From TrEMBL:
GO biological process, one term: regulation of DNA-templated transcription elongation
UniProt KW keywords: Kinase, Transferase
Residue ranges constituting the Transcription elongation factor GreA/GreB C-terminal domain according to the UniProt record: 83-138
Gene Ontology molecular function, alphabetical: DNA binding; kinase activity
Name of the featured protein: Nucleoside diphosphate kinase
Length: 155
C-alpha cells in the first residue's frame, strides 16, 4: 500500500498546540496589573472546574500555566514620583501635533484602545525619562513628541 493512503491517526493532522509566549525581560506590574492577573487566574480556575469538553480543559490549563507564570514572575513596580515619564505614569503628550494621553503599564495590562501601553512599546521607550516640555524624536521625525504633562496614574 502506498504511503499516501496510509493514515496513522486524526491527531497527526491537527495544528500543534504551543504554550502562550512569555514576553522577554522583567515582568513589571502596577498594583492594578497584579490584581488583574489574580482575577484572571481565579476566572480560569472556575472555568476549568466546570468545563466538560477535553479540548476546552486543555486550552484553559494552558492559559492557567501562562497566568500562573506571570503571577510568580510579577515585580510590583515602585510608585513613580511623577516628575518624569516612567512606569506607572500618565503622560499627556502631542505626537505630530495630535494631543493624546497614555498610561505606561506592564505587558499584560496593556490595552492601547483604553489608553494603556506597555513600557516595552516603542512609543513608551521613546518617552521614558522625559519631562514636561521635552521634545523627542520618534519614527525618524525630529521633535515628533512633545511632553505636555506627567502625573502619577491613579490605581
Amino acid at each position: 500500500m502506498s504511503v499516501a493512503f496510509r493514515r496513522e491517526s486524526d491527531e497527526e493532522h491537527l495544528e500543534p498546540k504551543f504554550e502562550l509566549p512569555i514576553p522577554a525581560g522583567p515582568n513589571l506590574v502596577t498594583a492594578r496589573g497584579l490584581r488583574l492577573i489574580e482575577a484572571r487566574i481565579a476566572e480560569l480556575e472556575a472555568d476549568a472546574a466546570k468545563a466538560d469538553d477535553p479540548a476546552a480543559v486543555t486550552s484553559l490549563q494552558r492559559d492557567l500555566r501562562y497566568w500562573r507564570a506571570r503571577q510568580v514572575s510579577a515585580e510590583l513596580a515602585p510608585v513613580p514620583a511623577g516628575e518624569k515619564v516612567e512606569f506607572g505614569t500618565e503622560v499627556r503628550f502631542s505626537l505630530n501635533d495630535n494631543p493624546r494621553t497614555l498610561r505606561i503599564v506592564g505587558d499584560d495590562e496593556a490595552a492601547p484602545a483604553a489608553g494603556l501601553i506597555s513600557f516595552n512599546a516603542p512609543l513608551s521607550r521613546a518617552m521614558l525619562g522625559a519631562e514636561a516640555g521635552d521634545l523627542l524624536p520618534f519614527g525618524g521625525i525630529e521633535d515628533a513628541i512633545e511632553i505636555l504633562s506627567v502625573a502619577v496614574a491613579a490605581d
